[in-house]
Structures are given as structure tokens and as C-alpha cells.
């Protein structure tokens, strides 16, 4: 669980290929969030390799339960996906489908969490379309996509020899991480003052399901 001083930011994404562009940029963004005082938790492809989500079934693997518990505890989320034919990877989409297990929580789905999205691919068109889909999914899960989403074109140099993203992407990823952490701190501060209603107006009934 996150503490008042250190919001938990969960980073999810990458591919089963070690050292993929999406995983490396996600790691940098999560590190930037940690530099801003967040408690980081990274869930890469190995942790996201879950059985296909089955609506109506309560059977979950230990890995699926860990993933859902991480989202439940999160105050902010960073998501990174490669562009697969104009959309996010099936691996990531299936993992996010498991957020349905949070439907009856006091904070259902990703309610009240800022969600920073990163899309990568060899060009601009595919990742741009993927970023739009990721932001739409975050909205559907009642998350708050950050004003800045990051598109990484892997057909151009993305990383320096030290393995960190080039300056352009470093700047964007740091800004996005700052938006996630800043929003998390605002919400946590409001909750500590008993004003969580600032993020969920009083009297509004939270529907279940989508």
C-alpha cells in the first residue's frame, strides 16, 4: 500500500522480448516518478502473461490476483504498449480487462488515478493510433489520462549509448511522470483532509459495470 508521502505508481507494459522499446521507456518513466517521490512498482510482460479474462468467473491465478491488487493499491498508473496494427498488444489489453475485478470497489476500476500512456512503434501513424486507443481505454476504466501522452518512433534513434532515452523522449517522459505523481499527491492530500468528494462529487452514485 502507498503511504501519504509516497504515492504508489504502478508501471505496466512491455513485450515478451527482453529490452523492448516499450519496456525500456516504461522503466525510465517509472524511474522518473520515483525521482519525484513515488513508490514504483513495475509489472512487465512476464507478470502480465495472464490467462484470457473470463467474465463471470472468480477463478484467478496468483499472478492475476497480484496484478489486480497492484491496481487496487495504485495512486497512479503508467502504461506502455507497442503498436500492433494500430492498437495496443493483446497481452496488455487482456491484463487491463482484469481491472473488471475492481468494479465493486469503493474506487472502481482506475477511478481517481492519473494514467500516463506510452505507445511505441516503427513510425508515427501506428503508435499515434495506439496512444488514442490507450487513452480511450483509460477513460473507460474511469482513469484520468494525463494531458501529455508519449509516442516513441523506434525507426529513429530512441536511446543513447548508456541505454537511456534520447533527450527529447527523456523530457516528455519526465513531464508525463510528473503529471501522474502530481495528480496522485493532490488526490491523496484531499483524501487526508476528508475531501475525497473533490474528485467524486457528493451524492453521485457510482454505477457498476460498463
Task: Describe, in plain words, how this protein is organized in 3D.
Strands 1, 2, 3, 4, 5 and 6 form a six-stranded parallel sheet that branches. The protein has one domain: Rossmann fold, CATH 3.40.50. The two termini are 27 Å apart. The radius of gyration is 16 Å and the shape is globular. The model is unreliable at 201-205 (pLDDT under 50). It contains six helices and six strands; from the N terminus they run E-H-E-H-H-E-H-E-H-E-E-H. By secondary structure, it is of the alpha/beta class. Helix 1 (21-35) crosses helix 6 (167-192). The longest helix is centred in the C-terminal third of the chain and has 26 residues, at 167-192.
Secondary structure layout plus pairing:
Layout: E1 8-13, H1 21-35, E2 39-43, H2 45-48, H3 62-73, E3 76-82, H4 90-97, E4 114-121, H5 125-140, E5 144-145, E6 150-153, H6 167-192
Parallel strand pairs: 1-2, 1-3, 3-4, 4-5, 4-6
Helix pairs in contact: 1-6
Amino acid at each position: 500500500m502507498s503511504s501519504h508521502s509516497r504515492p504508489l505508481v504502478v508501471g505496466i507494459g512491455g513485450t515478451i522480448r527482453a529490452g523492448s522499446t516499450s519496456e525500456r521507456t516504461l522503466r525510465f518513466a517509472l524511474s522518473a516518478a520515483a525521482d519525484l517521490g513515488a513508490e514504483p512498482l513495475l509489472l512487465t510482460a512476464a507478470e502480465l502473461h495472464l490467462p484470457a479474462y473470463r467474465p463471470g468467473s472468480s477463478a484467478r491465478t496468483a499472478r492475476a490476483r497480484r496484478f489486480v491488487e497492484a491496481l487496487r493499491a495504485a495512486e497512479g498508473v503508467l502504461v506502455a504498449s507497442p503498436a500492433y496494427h494500430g492498437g495496443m498488444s493483446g497481452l496488455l489489453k487482456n491484463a487491463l480487462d482484469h481491472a473488471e475485478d475492481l468494479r465493486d470497489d469503493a474506487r472502481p476500476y482506475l477511478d481517481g488515478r492519473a494514467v500516463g500512456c506510452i505507445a511505441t512503434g516503427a513510425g508515427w501513424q501506428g503508435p499515434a493510433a495506439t496512444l488514442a486507443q490507450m487513452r480511450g481505454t483509460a477513460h473507460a476504466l474511469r482513469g484520468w489520462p494525463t494531458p501529455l501522452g508519449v509516442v516513441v518512433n523506434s525507426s529513429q534513434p530512441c536511446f543513447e549509448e548508456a541505454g537511456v532515452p534520447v533527450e527529447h523522449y527523456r523530457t516528455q517522459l519526465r513531464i508525463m511522470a510528473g503529471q501522474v505523481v502530481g495528480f496522485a499527491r493532490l488526490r491523496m492530500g484531499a483524501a487526508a483532509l476528508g475531501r475525497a468528494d473533490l474528485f467524486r462529487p457528493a451524492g453521485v452514485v457510482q454505477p457498476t459495470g460498463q
